[in-house]
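Notebook B, p. 112. Complex prediction, attempt 2.
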Amino acid sequence: MERIMQVVFAMRTVWAVILALLVGSILMIFAGANPIDAYAALFGGAFFDYFGFGATLVKFSPIVLAGLAVAIPLRAGLFNIGAEGQIYIGALFCTAAALYLPEMYAPLHILICVLAGALGGALWAAIAGVLKAYRGINEVIVTLLLNYVGINIVSYAASGPMMEPGAPYPYSPEISSSLFLPYIMPPTDAHAGAVFAVILALILAFCLKYTTFGFSMVTVGYNPKAARYAGIRVQRQIVVTMMLGGALAGLAGAFEVLGVKYRLFQSFSPGYGFDGIVVAFMAAASPIFVVVAALFFAGLRSGAQVMQRAVGIDSTVVDATQGLIVLFSAASLSFRFRDSRWARMLANRRTMEATLASQEKPNA
Amino acid sequence: MVHIHIDGISKSFAGFRALDNVNIKIAKGAIHAILGENGAGKSTLMNILYGLYRPDEGQIVLDGRPLKMTSPRDAIANGIGMIHQHFMLVDTLSVTENIMLGLSGGVRPANLKFHEARINALSKKVNFAIDPAAPIWSLPMGMRQRVEILKALYRDAEVLILDEPTSVLAPTEIESFLDSLRTLRAAGHTILLITHKLDEVMQVADRISVMRHGKVTDEIDAADSTPRELARRMVGRDVVMDLKREKTTPGAVVLEVRDLVARNDQGVRALDNVGFSLRAGEVLGVTGVDGNGQRELGEVIAGLRTLEGGTILADGKDIGALDVKARKNVAGIGFVPEDRQHTGLVLDYPVATNLVLRDYDRRPVSRNGILNYGFIARNAVDLVKRYDIRLRSPQQPTRFLSGGNQQKVILAREIEARPRILIIMQACKGLDVGAIEFVQNMIFSLKKAGVGVLYVSTELEHVLDISDRIAVMCRGAITGIVSPQEATPERLGELMAGVRSAA
C-alpha cells in the first residue's frame, strides 16, 4: 500500500498536468468546443503530424535549453529566473559573431557563433552568480531584473547600431546563409539545435551523477557547509554553476538566430526563458525529465494553432491551459509525502494494526 | 515569597529523559540563574515555562495556582515573557511597530502615537533610553535586546525568561545589560536567567540552580559561592583516574600553533593569542565552558575559519595559507566537526557517498573527474564492517542513521584518510555509552599509531578519561595546560573561570 502511494506520489507532476488539462477542458466547453476533439487536434497536430511535429521541434529547442539553464543551477540550490535575458544576450553575441567576423570556413564560423552565444549568456548570468557568491545578494531578484535589461539591450541593438538600413521594423541584417544550421526534417523548420539540445541534456545528466564537477555542484546544493568542509570552493562553484546555466540559455538564443530567424529581431523570444522555469520545476531539475517536459510544452505551444483551426476556438484557451499547468504543477511540488494526509493516514493505519496485533495476544 | 514553583517536572523525547523531576522555587523579585552545560536540559525547561512544550509529569505553579499552558499565548496571558537567544524582530519596522506586532488591534496608524508615548514612558521607567521611532536595523544588538525585553514588559510580563542573553552581545554591551537586569529587579520583576557564563551569573544572580543531565544538582545563594566553585558543580564529577589510559611516549611535535587570533560568526574576537603544541602519539584535551573559543580553535586549524593572526605549523611547516583541502591532503589534518549533521555530513547522501565526501576528487574515488561508484560501494561495505556502523544498506540516506552511527561514519572517513593530526570536536555529544566507548577506543588506537589528537570537548569526564594533557580555555585564551594528575576539580574550576595558571 505504502509503496503504491509512493509511486503515485512520485508522479505527482503528471497528475497535476492531467488535472490541469481536465480543468482546461471545462474552459473549452465554455468556448463552445468538444474538449476531446480539441485535445485530439492539439496533440495530434503537435506530435502525430510530420509538419506539426517539425513545428513542435522548432519550439522544443529553445525551451529544453532554457529548462536546462534553470534546472542545472537549481541542483546547486540556485534559482535562475533569468534564462529569458540570457537567451537575448546569447542571441546578441551570436549575431555579432555572425555578422562582424571576417569570412572563414563555415563550420568553424558556426562553432564560433554558437560559442559566442553561450559566452554571452554565461557572462550575463555571471553577474548574478558573483553578486550571490561574494555579496550574498539574492540571485532571484538579480536574474529576474536582468531579464528586462537584456531584452532592452537587444531592442536597442536591433533598432540602433545593428539595425538593417531601411528595415521597416527593428531587426539586424540577415546572417550569411552558410551559417544556417542544417535542417533535420525538411521541409519543416526543425533544425539541428533540437538534436544538439537533447545530446547536451544527456551529457549534463551524466555529469551530474558521474563526475566530480557534478558532485561538487550537487553537494553545494544539498549542504554548502558540508561542501566547504569537503574542500569544495563554494563561492567559485556558485559562479561557475550560474555561468553554466547562462551558457545553456545563451545557446538557446544562438540557435534561434542560426536555426530559425537568421537575424536578430527585437523581442524575438515569446518567453522561452520563462517556459524554461516551468519545465525545470516540472522535471524536478532532472536533465532527462527536462527533455520530456520541454517536448510536452513545445507541443502545447505549436498545437494551439492547429486546434484553433480544427475546432474553431481561440488559441488563448491553450494559453489559459498552459497557465493552469504551471499552477497545478507548482502546487503539486509543494506536497511532501511525509506531511501529506495520505502519509499520516498510512502511519495511523500502521499504528492501528500494531495496536490490534498487540491486543490479539492474550493479556499477560 | 515564591513566585514560580517548578514542581517535579519531567520531560522525555523519544526515550531520552531531557528533564528528570526538576524542582525549582523562584522568589518574587529575584534574579534566579539556571546554570548548566549545553544539553543539560535548560532550554527544555524554558520551553515548558513558556508553554511551547507540555511536561510529561509535574506542573508549573505561579503565585500558588497551577498553570495549564498549551501555547506561548497562555504564558503571556499569565505574565510570563520570554526573550529568546535569537531576536524575533522585524528589521525594517520601528521599535514601536515591533512591540505592537501581535497585540490585538494590530499596527494601525491611529494607535501608533498612543503606543509610542506609552512605550517611551515604559522605556524611561526602566532606564532603557530607546527611541521608540527608530527602525530596528539602525540599533546595535544590545538595544535590540532591550526592545525584546520591552516587548515582554509591554505585555505586562512580571516574569522575564532570558535564554543565553549575552551570547549575542559585544563585551562592552554586557555590563549595561547586567545593569538593566538590576533595574528590572528593582522594579519588582522576577527574572530567570538561562546561561552558562559563570562570571555574569556571579555578578547579578541572587540564587543559582545548577543543572546537569536533566536534573537540578545544586541550588545555592550566589553570595555563598565563587566562580570556581560553580564551575566545579557545573561539571560535577569527582575526578577519578582512569585505568585504561596507556602511557605512550610522545614523539616529535606534529602541530604547533602560536598567537592564533580569529573571530566567531558574530564577528566578535573569539581566539585571543592561543598557542600550544601537540606531539605525535599524544592526546591533548581542550576543554572549558562552552563558547569560550574551542569551536573556533578547531575550525581555524582545519582551515574552515579565517586565521586573522598567528602561525600554524604542521611538522614544522607553516600551513596558514593552505585551504581546507590542502590542510587535509598536504598537512595531514583530519577534522571531526562539532556540527556533525550540518557540517560533517550531507544527510541526503547515501552513507557510502559520505564515507568519501572529502576524497571525492582524489584517486581512487575518482579518476580524471569521473567518480568510481564501484570503489565507493566496496569502500563503504568495508568501512561499515570495520567501524561497526549499524545500518540497513550503505546506500541508505545518512539522515536515517542514529547519532552514534552518523558519528562513526565521520570518524571512519577521517581516520581512513590516515591523518597525522586529528582534531575531534565534541566527539561524544549525544552519544550513548556504547558509542562513547567505541570512540574512546578509536582514539587510543590512533594514539598508539602515532597520531597527534586534539580532543576538543566540553564534557570534562571524557576529556579526563583520554587526554595526556588538558588545555583549558576561557574567553578565547588558554588559561592553563595541566596533566590529568593536576586536574583536580578545584584547579579546573579556576582555569575555566579564567584564573590564569601561575606556572
